[in-house]
Amino acid sequence: MFRNNYDNDSVTFSPQGRIFQVEYAAEAVKQGSVVVGIASKTHAVLVAIKRNAEELSSYQKKLFPIDEHVGIAIAGLTSDARVLSNFMKQQCLGHRLTYGRNMPVRTLVEMIGSKAQINTQHYGKRPYGVGLLVAGVDDQGPHLFEFQPSGMTEEMVAFAIGARSQMARTYLEKNIDKFADCDREELIRHGLRALKESLVQDRELTVDNTSVGVAGAVKADDGSTKVEPFKVYDQQDVTAWIESVADDKEGAGAGEGEGMEVDP
Amino acid sequence: MTSIGTGYDLANSIFSPDGRNFQVEYAVKAVENGGTSIGIRCKDGVVLAVEKIVTSKLLKPGANKRIATVDRHLGVVYSGMIPDGRHFIDRARDEARSWRDTFKTPISTADLASRMGGYMQAYTLYQSVRPFGITAIVGGFDSTEEAPVDGEVGSGPACGAGGKVAGKTHGGPFLYMIEPSGLYWGYYGAATGKGRQAAKAELEKLDLGGPGGPTLTLEQAVKEAARIIYVAHDDSKDKEFELEMTWISGADGPTKGCIGRERLSVGEKALDEDEDEEEGKEEKMEE
Amino acid sequence: MDHRPQAWGRPRDDVYGAYDASYLQSGGPKTATQSPIVTGTSVIAIKFKDGVVMAADNLASYGSLARFTDVKRLRPFLSTSVVGFGGDVSDMQFLTRHLNELAIDEAYEHESSPTSSSEDDPNAPPAGQLNAANLHKYLSKLMYRRRNDFDPLWNQILVAGFDSASAPFLASVDLRGTTFTSPSLATGFGAMLAQPIMRRYAATEADAARLTREEAVKVVKECMKVLFYRDARSLDRYSIAVVTKDGVELSEDEQLERQSWAFAERIKGYGTQTV
Predict the structure, then answer these.
(1) Neighbors of chain C by Cβ distance (3+ pairs < 8 Å)
(2) Structure ipTM
(3) Count: domains in chain C
(4) CB–CB of B222/B246 below 8 Å?
(5) Out of C72, C94, C114, whose CB is closest to B63?
(6) pTM to 2 decimals?
(7) Which residues are paired to A64 by β-bridges?
(8) Is C163 contained in some domain?
């Protein structure tokens, strides 16, 4: 890769109107291990692959609860993610204190979007080197958002970011019509299958490297909505789910040639 | 771009020997890559429309809105770098709010365009920032009614000082377009983004700038705006898109002076069903 | 005579004596609002099975002077809630403007959501919008903060609407940040004169849940009449609002009907009475 004159900082446009520093920050997201998110009519799910630096070290957490109703999955610089996560926690808490309700997920996501945009327009700042999937439930039901270092935030039906995430996205695109009506368990399984698509050969989901996060808002018969707070599941809590997707080939596209391509 | 490599384009706020600020010109390039946005100022309102390129099948259809409300009577649409557009809108909302704080009355479309033009221009002045990578179209309907002061509790004196000139009208539909340089003009019909040339050609065919003011009604303009976005879309090159549009009328019209009260967001396949779509809209407008 | 420019236009010390600057209070604590100036009197409200009824008269008094007689003290918020203000009128105007901004802010988020109203009930207010309970929480934080700044907003406020479980909601907050909720509520003189009457009809939440809209409106109108009889800072023109799931019906120019002042003859103890 060659340097050019326009990639030194985030306040210089290239002649094509691009900002290379922001594009490079997006590359940092692809260095992180893969995370997948899916939303149905009743639940929002995040699943993630955790990495350990070496055999004897612990695994880096990928899923973080923000408030009762929201959680995030991160890919990229963990320390940048912590800055954003702390900010989101504070905003949610403040909103809860002032209005006595869950902060709407879109409002929350747009706040970090605005925060990140500032870093792309001022000299001496750098873009955040992390991408997020934000899953949560509010008065309007479950939501899944993607956040990029550019400050771009978009609501998705399902999405995957991180290393080799293209394969997971391909799985999600193939199954996108199924997600809306999935129940909690089906949705988690779809997430794990998408995750498996992105694994390197010889690697598989284990209780050590897999995290699952769920939030839900299920409508009861009497019209009231029962909120399932966002919760992260690790270790033995994910065993059953991993086993349930261990051998199935339901994930169309699994094992096909495209699965071996490198992350673009 | 013969001047690339001379070094005058490496930082914002630097003039080249022939008097250009290249960084601003590059920012315009970012705009020219974005989906087409248009605005139409018609007889009884303003229409804003945008072509949203669908970058991924995984996007939630219709969920990611690009036209934003700034105040009850003001809307903004933009082409270019979307996070920059969000920033622009945040600022526009702050301006509208501070105007209300100071003057106890809504900001006029012209004043908002002026404030935001100034804000954009400030980002061309310093090496420490970059220009906005957007061109924004601001549409609004300044009330033609006799507006009470915000927070007014009684009816006030029925006569006396502060009286109005009989027969004098004020307010109405307004449309402005603000460029990365901070330059802004008022428009009868405005277009920016990738398909601006085609869109402009279509806009110029409409009767918008006649001496007696535009004859196009809001209802017609809504249809024209939808059509123009489809015309401006390059089927061969571009991916699928969603059309998003909104419109605003005066207090006696279908939106009762409030923007965003009616909004439309349709996927690309609606192209074939264009006729049906139009009828749906008519129903809405007769509300 | 003193011809120095500093003395031009000033009262002459040799005629009027030296200027007494003592009232300027050079020392002492900084003070903000010590008392309300132009005031509105009672606001009353009662829950019924499908919503809440609220009323307040249209008078703004300057001390004992009936200064403004067309002041609207009930304010709808987002067409789903009503806020009623007793106390200082300029503070009410400040709060009204503030709530207006809050409503505009709410619209930003609300209009950008694809499912703005519930699928099964087209009349339901848009999901995710601030409801009366959220609004009351917000106002209580605002009022409490201002009181802790020793710069209170001199109001007693009633908030009516619905809570997040879609049940009728009624609560109050005052200049001290005190919050209270009850099936019926009244501020100012209404707390003494109207509340006992309303409690006859809605002593408990269960009672209120049986009350019909017509009954609730009748009780409130009756209370407004009693308040006009006995509260010297009240007026016979008033506003009444009914909040239901369908929205807010606000009528701002009601007139007290069928007044009977016969009881006044029997009142003794003050005024120009000879017996």
Answers:
(1) A, B
(2) 0.89
(3) 1
(4) no
(5) C114
(6) 0.89
(7) A72
(8) yes
